[in-house]
């Protein structure tokens, strides 16, 4: 797969473009981007070869839609008829149920192949200016295929995305993806954003180290993008927020009661869980 | 200050010993450590010059007590009569009200100088085996002096601890230290430990990136040490836990209600706070 169309030159789309061109000069990358100066800049940098339009879209082996869910859906609706039947189209949306349902339906209708995707990488910053050729180095790429055990498709996905630097693929369903991402990513953003709201935050300089820095890093988020992602994944995210609220209340009660044994047990359970899961 | 006594060769005491010897071979470091093999090992490594006992304690210009609060109190009670009047003694406990009250009283009684200390550095690992000469590089060292604006004392503290690699001193009261640390460090450990308890944690591999890793890093804590620190700082920590519980409930309610505007506003407020505080 050597001719790639990228829709949206933000943090993710921009990083894909840079990564392909850095990996192998023979990749041809076309990009669609509303902001004309970003498009020009990316072309001057050599991150893309030209604009993605109906004509160049027709030459693509692979198409990566790297917009927020709403805009990704709109782009697919409008452009599905022009995606070649020989191409594999994928999105990079942070939640997968809505976009995959649409992508699978349009793929059946117009004859191209479709799979949902989600690179497990990023930063709390956004936009092309923060994109990097090595953004995906060592990360995993989550794939949501139409048919779970379609080996041929998986090989196509592999040859499509691995040159961008990923270390491995993880295959799952849209439902399972959204359930897991509510915990690994969405809850982290909610907690981090809530953490920094303590009035004490304003006085932390000189009194903080790695734990404060780590807990609040992703507080600095894009509110519009995350509002959409959270509301789209409301069921799973509410489960996780309720979960941590319940857990936090247990520590709170043990501390309020001065119950040393109970507090120790709560902390030891958390330590043990962390060790089991990541040790 | 060239002859230093270190009480306890754990993560912090061990790092101080290594840091002094790495900074300047003319430092003479004596250490008290219950675990004889750690003591031997530290001597073989050249991290210490010998054992801290009543005789060598009498030669020290500076004494650093690097044990948990309870043991630090016990050590000070037992050894205060043998600390030379010319010496500056400090502790490195994670909470400061109890230890400073004792240290200040003993210092008045026996004639030596005392200040509370707290290096703003560490890792979630513990013990001498995880100590490092560069642990404090670039970190701040919090000082709790007996008299807040005692310039002479501050100069002594500076010449005592800065060779270990700190970038700056922060001066405060024990009360204010404990209030701030409840937010910057203790709450982070509670939240992280609670976070990893979601049943979803067991399935995160391949579906997580930096935000999960950062949020759960300090879940892997020493339950005994943190139980003591949390209970000693109960008032301030409860304030912070209640604070984040209240904030989290707001996101929860906005998400449950599908209230896009309210959710956006909550996220934007958090983003703005993070920017104000750390931008």
Question: What does this entry look like structurally?
Answer:
The structure is a homodimer of 279-residue chains. The relative contact order of chain A is 0.11. The first copy, chain A, has 279 residues and is an alpha/beta fold. The radius of gyration of chain A is 21 Å and the shape is elongated. The longest helix of chain A is centred in the C-terminal third of the chain and has 23 residues, at 234-256. Chain A has eleven helices and eight strands. Chain A has two domains: 3-172, Rossmann fold (3-Layer(aba) Sandwich); 177-278, 6-phosphogluconate dehydrogenase C-terminal fold. In chain A, 52% of the residues lie in helices and 13% in strands. In chain A, strands 3-2-1-4-5-6-7-8 form an eight-stranded mixed β-sheet, sandwiched between helices. Chain A has helices spanning 11-23, 36-45, 54-57, 69-79, 97-110, 151-161, 174-195, 210-216, 223-232, 234-256, 260-278; strands at residues 3-7, 28-32, 50-51, 62-65, 88-91, 113-119, 140-145, 168-171. Chains A and B meet through helix 7, helix 8, helix 9, helix 10 and helix 11 of A and helix 7, helix 8, helix 9, helix 10 and helix 11 of B.
């Amino acid at each position: 797969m050597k001719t790639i169309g990228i829709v949206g030159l933000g943090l993710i789309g921009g990083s894909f473009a840079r990564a392909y061109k850095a990996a192998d000069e023979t990749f041809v990358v076309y990009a669609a981007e509303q902001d004309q100066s970003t498009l020009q800049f990316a072309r001057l940098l050599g991150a893309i070869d030209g604009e993605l339009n109906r004509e160049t879209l027709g030459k693509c082996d692979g198409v990566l839609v790297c917009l927020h869910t709403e805009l990704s859906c709109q782009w697919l609706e409008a452009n599905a008829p022009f995606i070649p039947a020989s191409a594999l189209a994928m999105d990079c949306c942070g939640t997968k149920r809505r976009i995959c349902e649409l992508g699978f339906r349009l793929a059946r209708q117009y004859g191209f192949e479709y799979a949902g995707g989600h690179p497990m990488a990023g930063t709390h910053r956004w936009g092309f200016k923060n994109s990097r050729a090595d953004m995906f180095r060592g990360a995993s790429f989550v794939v949501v295929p139409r048919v779970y055990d379609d080996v041929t498709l998986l090989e196509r996905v592999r040859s499509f995305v691995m040159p961008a630097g990923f270390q491995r693929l993880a295959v799952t369903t849209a439902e399972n993806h959204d359930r897991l991402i509510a915990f690994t990513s969405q809850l982290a953003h909610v907690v981090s954003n809530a953490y920094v709201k303590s009035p004490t935050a304003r006085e932390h300089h000189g009194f903080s180290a790695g734990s404060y820095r780590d807990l609040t890093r992703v507080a600095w988020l894009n509110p519009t993008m995350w509002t959409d992602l959270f509301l789209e994944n409301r069921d799973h995210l509410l489960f996780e927020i309720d979960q941590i609220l319940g857990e936090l209340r247990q520590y709170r009660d043990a501390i309020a009661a001065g119950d040393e044994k109970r507090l120790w047990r709560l902390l030891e359970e958390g330590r043990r869980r962390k060790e089991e899961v990541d040790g």
